[in-house]
Design brief:
- The complex is a heterodimer of chains A (245) and B (604).
- Chain A has 2 domains: 99 residues, Beta-grasp domain (Ubiquitin-like (UB roll)), CATH 3.10.20; 136 residues, Alpha-helical ferredoxin (Fumarate Reductase Iron-sulfur Protein, Chain B, domain 2, Orthogonal Bundle).
- Helices cover 35% and strands 15% of the residues of chain A.
- Chain A is built from 10 helices and 7 strands.
- In chain A, a hairpin with a 2-residue loop joins β6 and β7.
- In chain A, α3 packs antiparallel against α6 and α6 crosses α9.
- The termini of chain A are far apart.
- Chain B contains 16 helices and 22 strands.
- Chain B has 3 domains: 295 residues, FAD/NAD(P)-binding domain (3-Layer(bba) Sandwich), CATH 3.50.50; 143 residues, Flavocytochrome C3, Chain A, domain 1 (Alpha-Beta Complex), CATH 3.90.700.10; 129 residues, Up-down Bundle (Methane Monooxygenase Hydroxylase, Chain G, domain 1), CATH 1.20.58.
- In chain B, α3 packs across α11, α5 crosses α15 and α13 packs parallel to α15.
- Chain B has 604 residues and is of the alpha/beta class.
- Classes of the chains: A alpha+beta (245), B alpha/beta (604).
- The interface between A and B is large, with 61 and 66 residues.
Chain lengths: 245, 604
């Protein structure tokens, strides 16, 4: 590995900005966030970057590295071609606050629009339930989500078409799927998913699944089964017929 | 006059990890107007990092377990310096709090008969930790977050609290700024709950996130509240040691709970060499017995790898110092070896320890199902903190409450793994409940504009000095070196005195810290603001550690390597003197009532 590398970092805010180059020393095993921190400590103290655990567990340091949505803390410099500048940009699907930090508050507002967990009555007199591991497994996959919002960033319905007012994005389909498939849950979110949350806009290009740092099979395990439930309820001709009767 | 926005609350919670969210849910459930202020986005707090599990005597896996065993395990781990009332309440209430999480949507791993599964952990006599693979903290914070957003609380994300406002001896609110825009905010509040977590960022090698700058400790101290047990900093025995940039990241104790073993460069399981008397009767005397214990054999005793964290950390330290360490200055933690016992070991390991597999694969190019990990001690947890009443979690400053890592008492001289997540929900709930009660009884305090103006002036001074002032990042890095080198796992009077001198120097430089740019999301400014808190807690740790001339729990003094029975009867209190100087006082431990003492004797 070379001793120095060039980082081309987007700096600016909602009113605009541009790339600035920083050359910094690198050591073996470093991740992109380390390089950003070194630049911040030595050359650009007011460089804005959001991070927290630096261990791939909190999902704060989402950015676009050489054009790919990634966590800065989990992207090793050894994976990148350091003969070229490493380009670091904020996520594109959200408004800029400053430098690498974007305003992701929309996600927190969206979550509130999804009906909350409503468990069935407890199975046992002490208020507990019985669940088999096999039934819990598939929901546990969804609950690995660290809310980094990289799937939201890469989703073309949000990124290119800006449908933030109508469409909740892959993160919240995973969230809704976790609730819908929860062994204890009794609420019904299918109509909301179809109407209020516009799941129909998703044409399953699997971009979200490909960037998920937790390797959640977003499209196949969460979105498609939800779409199937909608089809079952609203578009099954036989069921429609029986409903009319 | 300073410009600021005002958001009044009945109960204000500072911090949105497990304790803060649980407190806010409780306060909001009483119908009071409840606000939460957090430095990060919601759901990112350090609780997400907790891996192993939440300790509660549910007795789902071993029906011999009950609150009395959990209580005595906690007291033994804390070397009997614990606040016994907290240890009692914690052991009694943890099962109910865990079941409540399930009612709010948490999905713990299951036993064969469909109940919550529990795993073994260091210092717990029976399998006691409810868990979700090795991402229990994430499950917990997400459950509380998703439940909390429908409970009526307001959340102020990415805000830093600069000071607590005090009105004639009681708390009246908090003042701070939002990090995104840099606007000042006043939160008048009838009661305030501190749930700000720990102090790990005072050290260079730590498993803690950037938020852990001792804010709550320092806010309480400056407002006049007492701190307790500040000398007890837990070093987790197993952090990553390589690559250098990830040094300190936690490797869960769950690895050892699932059968992982520690070896030195000679391939020897060195933990068998040094088993403390207090634990001799509970520890396996052969490798085979240890393995059977991890696989649920009720007649087997635990392997020495699962002794308390302070002891394991010191043994690792000893091996490395004796030249029997791994290439990057740690020792080997091997889980791959279980293939000798389990047919589909790689699949089993990935299912039981998915985050660990992922973490080593991605950050170190190591496949833990095939190779051993290199691990070494990392600063992990602060036992010391705000002194609180065991039942209500109120500090010595009326109206100010504390729960979770920022509060002290439950863990005494050392915390058992798994007792932190249960601490958050047991005492988070209690703090929220009693803060609400205080707010209803006492109403609002008066806000003093002078205190606000003082906080504003202090906050803006780094901009006045500009970029030619001292670099706040440099001061922080040097402080971390000092604490790491001089007030770490092994302590001596000489080194700690030197540390105090250096901390004095850092205080002077902190007063000259400067920063350029403007207030909008300026990490340099944020770092300058955190410095005061880091310096306050570093000084408190060092002073308290100097006073305690003995080795006990997490504190190991090379110059006083033995336990001193006299010190076993005393807690250290840190408070601010009238002249602004830091005072350490040693006070007698509150005596344990006979019925609890009898439980401890019975379980010995």
């Amino acid at each position: 590995m070379s001793d120095q590398a060039l980082f081309r970092i987007w700096r600016g805010d909602a009113s605009g900005g541009g790339f600035q180059d920083y050359k910094t020393n690198i050591d073996s095993g470093m991740v992109v966030l380390d390089a950003v921190h070194r630049i911040q400590a030595e050359q650009a103290p007011d460089l804005a970057v959001r991070w927290n655990c630096k261990a791939g567990k909190c999902g704060s340091c989402s950015a676009e590295i050489n054009g790919t949505p990634k966590l800065m803390c989990m992207t090793r410099l050894s994976e990148l071609n350091l003969d070229m500048p490493v380009i670091i940009e904020p996520m594109h699907a959200f408004p800029s606050i400053r430098d690498l930090v974007t305003d992701v508050s929309w996600n927190f507002r969206v979550k509130k629009t999804i009906q909350k967990f409503q468990p069935r009555k407890p199975d046992n007199p002490d208020g507990t339930w019985n669940m088999q591991q096999a039934d819990v497994d598939r929901v546990q996959e969804f609950r690995k989500c660290i809310e980094c919002f990289l799937c939201q960033d890469v989703c073309h319905v949000l990124r290119n078409h800006g449908k933030h007012d109508e469409f909740i994005g892959p993160r919240f389909f995973v969230y809704a799927a976790a609730l819908e498939m929860h062994p204890l849950d009794t609420a019904d979110r299918i109509q909301d998913l179809r109407k209020k949350h516009s799941i129909g806009y998703c044409n399953i290009t699997t971009c979200c699944r490909q960037v998920c740092p937790e390797s959640i099979t977003i499209t196949e395990n969460a979105i498609i089964p939800l779409k199937e439930r909608i089809v079952d309820r609203y578009f099954d001709p036989l069921k429609k017929f029986f409903r009319i009767l | 006059m300073a410009e600021y926005q005002t958001y009044p609350y009945d109960v204000l919670v500072i911090g949105a990890g497990g304790a803060g969210l649980r407190a806010a849910i409780q306060a909001a459930s009483t119908g009071l107007k409840t606000g939460v202020v957090c430095k990060s986005l919601l759901g990112k707090a350090h609780t997400v990092m907790a891996e192993g599990g939440v300790a509660a005597a549910l007795a789902n896996v071993d029906d011999r377990d009950n609150w009395r065993v959990h209580f005595s395990d906690t007291m033994r781990g804390g070397q009997y310096l614990n606040n016994w009332r907290m240890a009692e309440l914690h052991a009694k209430e943890a099962p109910e709090r865990v079941r409540e999480l399930e009612a709010w949507g948490a999905l713990f791993d299951r036993t064969k008969d469909g109940r919550i599964l529990q795993r073994n952990f260091g210092g717990h006599r029976y399998p006691r930790l409810a868990h979700v693979g090795d991402r229990t903290g994430l499950e917990m914070i997400r459950t509380l977050q998703d439940h909390g957003i429908h409970s009526g609380m307001d959340v102020h994300m990415e805000c830093t609290v600069l000071s607590l406002l005090v009105d004639s001896g009681r708390v009246a609110g908090a003042f701070g700024y939002d990090r995104e825009k840099g606007h000042f905010i006043l939160w008048p509040a009838k009661a305030v709950v501190l749930a700000t977590g720990g102090i790990g960022r005072a050290y260079k090698v730590t498993s803690n996130s950037w938020e852990y700058t001792g804010d709550g400790h320092a806010l309480a101290y400056r407002a006049g509240a007492e701190l307790l047990d500040m000398e007890f900093v837990q070093f987790h025995p197993t952090g990553m040691v390589w690559p250098i940039s990830v040094r300190g990241i936690l490797v869960t104790e769950g690895v050892r709970g699932e059968g992982g073993v520690l070896r030195n460069s000679e391939g020897k399981r060195f933990m068998f060499d040094d088993i403390p008397d207090l634990y001799k009767t509970q520890t396996a005397d052969s490798e085979d017995e240890g393995w059977r214990y991890t696989q649920g054999d009720k007649n087997a005793r635990r392997p020495p790898e699962l002794l308390t964290r302070d002891h394991v950390a010191r043994c690792i330290n000893r091996e490395v110092k004796a030249g029997r360490g791994s290439p990057h200055g740690g020792v080997y933690l091997d889980i791959a070896w279980i293939k000798q016992h389990i047919a589909d070991a790689p699949v089993h390991i990935k299912r039981k320890l998915p985050s660990m597999y992922h973490q080593f694969k991605q950050l170190a190019d190591i496949d833990i199902t095939k190779e051993a990990m290199e691990v070494g001690p990392t600063t992990h947890y602060m036992m010391g903190g705000v002194k609180v009443d065991g039942d209500s979690e109120m500090s010595t400053l009326p109206g100010l409450f504390a729960a979770g890592e920022v509060a002290a008492g439950l863990h005494g001289a050392n915390r058992l793994g798994g007792n932190s997540l249960s601490d958050l929900i047991v005492f988070g709930k209690r703090a929220g409940e009693y803060a609400a009660e205080f707010a209803k009884k006492n109403g609002a305090g008066a806000i003093d504009e002078g205190q606000i103006q003082g906080a504003v002036n202090e906050a803006l001074s780094p901009f006045d000095r500009g970029p030619s002032g001292e670099n706040p990042y440099a001061i922080q890095h040097e402080l971390q070196d000092t604490m790491q080198d001089l007030v770490g796992i092994v302590r001596t009077e000489g080194e700690m005195s030197r540390a105090l001198d250096q901390i004095g120097g850092f205080w002077k430089r902190e007063a000259r810290a400067g920063i350029g740019g403007h207030r909008q999301y300026n990490n340099g400014w944020h770092t300058a603001m955190d410095l005061k808190n880091l310096l306050t807690v570093s000084e408190a740790v060092t002073r308290a550690a100097l006073v305690r001339k003995e080795s006990r729990g997490a504190q190991f003094r090379d110059d006083f390597p033995e336990k001193d029975p006299e010190w076993g009867k005393k807690n250290n209190i840190v408070r601010r003197g009238d002249d602004g100087g830091m005072i350490v006082e040693s006070r007698p431990v509150t005596p344990i009532p006979p019925e609890l003492k009898a439980i401890i004797e019975e379980m010995k």
